[in-house]
Amino acid sequence: MDDGGRTVTVNGIGKDEMGASLRMEQTDCLLEKLNVSSAVKKHMETTRALDGQQTDEWDGIKARWTYHPDDGLNLILQDTH
Question: How many Å apart are CA 6 and CA 79, to the nearest integer?
Answer without folding.
Answer: 5
